[in-house]
Design brief:
Helices cover 35% and strands 19% of the residues. It is of the alpha/beta class.
């Protein structure tokens, strides 16, 4: 009862609208620092892991061995992207308008890419009956998608040169955003939310683009056996993946997008370029190899600002993929062009595209760039499929699709009469990428400051965990963590914990506080933990799994070296989930208290989706279950104080009551678990 009363008082500090920020009077230096410098060990650790994994991926020595590896690689890519194939699904192609240009026509269309989900696009067609070769044009990170002038010009140039071109809005961008007519960035926390329902933004786009190929092959004016693909930046990334998986694509040209996967790690890339566990089984040259014996040419730029796409990185992948093409006897089917431009799709790139497609789709020329006819962009309104605000509801956004899919998965979970707790516990560990408790290699004291012992815990897998320790009057200890670092912990709450008589251990989890990555600051303006969250996924882990591991390490250290009779955990924002996940996977905690943490992974609203960092998202968590199931798997009482939705909206009283019933039902379904209190 004493602990419950204390936690209730603590939760009062979170009731103000500004609770998520360091509270008034809580200064950044209100708790002492553990480290004596700001060396970016998180960045160094992940760069080391990435380089090791990259070097481990080697191509075999001959064509027969490659064909065996190719089969496994393709299966892995399909599984990890979550791409879907809908060959027999009707297109229900609908045209809403068209424009007659000089030598071409552009039609504004939308079509079905997955059951009851439609994509918006512009279809550029040359004059004449055809049949013509066709090219799928995939957009990069322009918020306005296909309307972006450089992408319009690619469609026009292709059509004027005798190609049908389909320029498709990427999932979540252009006319496929949350609110029609309000263009938004499709990545960051919004795009990462797809992970929770078992999808990836990469896979959603790949599914769309395969359906685009299906559509082009169905058109009467298209030569169905002569399909190409191109795109820049994120669209170039899509081009590579489409060509790798869809063997109907005979020639591809990704622009300013090919580099190396290891260079993605702790660098500035989009969530749409994340392949969960990707670096555990391949490097980019392996994906390029999947295109062989078909044709692919990379265009990179010397003024590139993103190190991932530097020409030097592209050349690494090309050199390592080259032997695959040579084994097939088509060494010239892979190549590159370099232009003195910044990031983008320029006239020289379009001319390289025409020469490459002419050679491989028309049998003309020698594959080298050739001049294009003059093109000029159209007003954006001319290419809109719908009038502002009048979009067909079947053109879904990330928000609407994630909310629907999450709700359906929750219904399925709640309909289960009994749940195998042991299997769910094992599956959750795999889902989170939990390695088990990393053994402590070193426990080093860094001195005393203001009554706090400054301790550095070095784990067996070389993580450095900064911990502040203050012993209490009894042998009980409380571990405290905040998703935004220890300086964000409310001073009043910490003071109450100290008065309880328990010892206190304050930890900065990896990516937070003193354990953050300073070099990621410029990249994380899109969303907190954007850089670290993506890096963890590429290497087969998750931030939530890492934090659960780190909590396990601290709790183990408190028991073994500090003689703790019992260890409880208090976590703020998404840090609270570390306690739930640690307990769910076998961790022994006296109690788990969360403050302002999500009560469920079911998507509710795109507004406020940046409230939690990208690291909160866990691939497939809603296919597995939800937080109510995780809480039921543990033997630790769980107290959810001021729980919120995934977008940070505080739960209403009726919603809290409903959540309380759900958490209780999960205890019954699993046949055990400790109590859960929601207040």
């Amino acid at each position: 009862m004493k602990e419950i009363l204390l936690s209730t008082v603590l939760s009062i500090t979170l009731l103000s609208p500004g609770w998520a920020r360091p509270l008034q009077g809580v200064l950044p230096d209100s708790l002492p620092k553990v480290f004596n410098d700001e060396t970016d060990v998180l960045h160094a650790r992940y760069r080391h892991l990435a380089l090791n994994r990259s070097k481990a991926h080697q191509l075999p020595g001959n064509l027969a061995a490659w064909k065996e590896q190719r089969k496994r690689l393709r299966e892995n890519v399909i599984a990890r992207t979550g791409v879907k194939f809908y060959e027999s699904l009707p297109f229900n192609l609908k045209e809403t308008g068209k424009y007659q240009g000089n030598g071409y026509t552009v039609k504004n269309v939308y079509f079905q890419t997955r059951p009851d989900v439609y994509a918006t696009a512009n279809l550029y067609e040359p004059e004449g009956k055809g049949p013509f070769p066709a090219v799928v044009m995939m957009m990069g990170h322009s918020r306005d998608g296909k309307l972006y002038e450089p992408y319009q010009l690619v469609g026009q140039s292709l059509a004027r040169e005798g190609y049908v071109a389909l320029c498709i809005d990427p999932w979540g961008a252009g006319e496929r955003g949350t609110v029609h007519g309000e263009f938004e960035y499709h990545g960051a926390a919004l795009g990462a939310s797809l992970l929770n329902i078992g999808e990836t933004l990469m896979g959603m786009q790949l599914t769309d683009n395969i359906r685009a190929v299906d559509l082009l092959r169905s058109l009467p004016n298209v030569d169905r056996d002569k399909i190409g693909a191109t795109g820049a930046s994120g669209g170039g990334n899509q081009t590579m993946w489409l060509a790798a998986i869809d063997e109907r694509v005979k020639a591809a040209m990704p622009v300013v997008s090919v580099g190396t996967f290891d260079s993605y790690i702790m660098a500035h890339n989009c969530v749409c370029e994340v392949l969960p566990k990707g670096l555990t089984f391949t490097e980019e040259w392996g994906v390029l190899g999947l295109v062989a014996p078909r044709a692919i040419k990379m265009c990179n730029h010397n003024q590139e600002s993103n190190p991932t796409f530097y020409p030097a990185e592209m050349k690494k992948s090309l050199a390592k993929a080259q032997p695959v093409f040579d084994w097939y006897g088509v060494g010239k089917n892979i190549g590159y062009e370099l232009y003195d431009h910044p990031h983008g799709y320029f006239a020289e790139d379009r001319e390289a595209l025409l020469g490459w497609m002419d050679f491989h789709l028309k049998g003309k020329g020698d594959g080298r760039p050739r001049k294009e006819q003059q093109v000029s962009a159209l007003p954006a309104g001319q290419l809109m499929v719908f009038q502002d605000g009048k979009r067909d509801p079947k053109v879904q956004s990330t928000e609407s699709y994630s909310r629907w899919a999450g709700s359906e998965l929750k219904k399925k979970l709640m309909a289960e009469s009994a749940i195998n707790a042991a299997k769910k516990r094992s599956d959750l560990s795999a889902l989170l990428g939990i390695s088990g408790k990393p053994a402590i290699a070193v426990s080093q004291k860094a001195g005393e400051t203001d009554g706090w012992s400054r301790v550095i815990l070095e784990t067996g897998d070389e993580r450095l965990l900064p911990v502040l320790l203050r012993k209490g009057k009894n042998k009980e200890f409380v571990v405290v963590a905040h998703a935004e670092g220890k300086s964000a912990i409310p001073a009043s709450g910490l003071s109450l914990l100290m008065k309880s008589g328990s010892g206190i251990a304050v930890i900065d989890f990896s990516g937070t506080g003193e354990a953050f990555s300073k070099s990621s600051n410029g990249f994380d303006n899109l969303s907190r933990l954007h850089t670290y969250g993506r890096a963890a996924l590429w290497l087969g882990g998750t931030v939530m799994g890492n934090w659960a591991d780190e909590l396990a390490t601290v709790a183990d250290w408190l028991r073994k070296e500090q003689g703790a009779a019992g260890v409880s955990f208090h976590g703020y924002k998404e840090a609270g989930l570390a306690g739930i996940f640690h307990a769910a996977t076998g961790g022994k905690l006296k109690e788990v208290h969360t403050y302002g943490s999500p009560a469920s992974y079911v998507f509710d609203s795109g507004k406020g989706i940046e409230h939690f960092g990208v690291g909160v998202h866990v691939p497939g968590i809603l296919q597995w279950g939800d937080l109510s199931l995780a809480a039921a798997l543990g033997q630790s009482p769980v107290f959810l104080h001021n729980p919120v939705t995934l977008s940070g909206r505080a739960l209403s009283s009726p919603e809290k009551e409903e959540a309380q019933k759900e958490y209780a039902a999960m205890r019954t379904k699993t046949g055990g678990g400790a109590k859960v209190v929601i207040d």
